Amino acid sequence: xxxRLKARPANVADxxxxxxxxxxxxxAARAAKVRDLLRVGPGFDLAAVDARATPxxxxxxxADQGGKEWSREQVAAIGTHLADQQERLFAQAKVGGARGxxxxxxxxxxxxxxxxxxxxVAGAMNPLGLHIVGFGPPxxxxxxxxxxxxxRRALPDPGVVGIFNRSHxxxxxxxxxxxxxxxxxxxxRYDLINQFEKELADDGVTIIKAMLHISYGEQRQRxxxxxxxxxxxxKFNPGDLDDRARWPDFQAAYADALALCAxxxxxxxxxxxxxxxxxxxxxxxxxxxAFADMGLKYPAPSFDVEEQRARLTAEERAGRxxxxxxxx
Length: 328
Ligand code: AMP
Ligand code: MG
What we know:
Shape: globular
CATH architecture: 3-Layer(aba) Sandwich
Radius of gyration: 23 Å
Number of strands: 5
Bound molecules: adenosine monophosphate, magnesium ion
Strand content: 5-15%
Number of helices: 15
Order of helices and strands: HHHHEHEHHEHHEHHHEHHH
Low-confidence stretches: 6-19
Mean pLDDT: 92
CATH class: Alpha Beta
């Protein structure tokens, strides 16, 4: 068996040992509720979503502690399970040949918090089982192919958790708003995207699409913070202000992408994201709910454990283990 995923710094608890299904159940039950509240359903109205809202938050528990502190603790607790589930997923693919995968697609306008979410939430999982890809403007090579070409190449392998920081949705968002292709081209893409995502789901990919939704005012504040802080100025791109000037067009493009591409195979979730601590907690819940639905178990060994143990102890009795150690 591949043991790479077992490698952890000695001071970090092994979640496979410390977490039991008993503590997963209540967290998973709440995660499923949060997910239901955030899911884009028929008649969904993006304009009606309050970016400062906190759907599913257990208000009384949070009140004692304050949201930030409470969220940090909860995300850490959920993170332990995310790491545990990720390892099971990885093991099943490695040993059992399963094709299951998880793909988290993160979309947001500038300053929406995609990077922060990846750092805070995906950070709980083992880097060896993660495949994180960011999508910027397509390169010359990428432009020579259809818009899904670079996306297909970036998909996670079986057993791996993939995270897209922006995605093929830019091809019906930024591309549409900035008039980079004719309308007939981007209009045809909603169907192509739905077909593509269905194909992925049929191949074992659990797809979670999350739009991190910030308000116009919050974006202004975060852009200002970037300009005011010399350690954040590198994140500022003057082009962000051009996109900001097209705010209503982006909202309309997002509304269409959400309405036209929220499918059973690949649902959309809108996460109110003005409060970073809520956003982190909500996305952690989306991941946990997806994992819980997968019912992941460690694969049974394909060999006779007793037989292998006997071989190893026989070797020790013969004194070979000791000789090898001394000679190395
Ligand atoms: P950032 O995520 O801040 O590094 O910015 C990446 C930029 O790349 C954003 O302005 C996106 O809109 C842009 N981008 C991503 N994908 C595409 C695409 N397919 N076509 C055009 N622009 C894109
Ligand atoms: Mg940017």
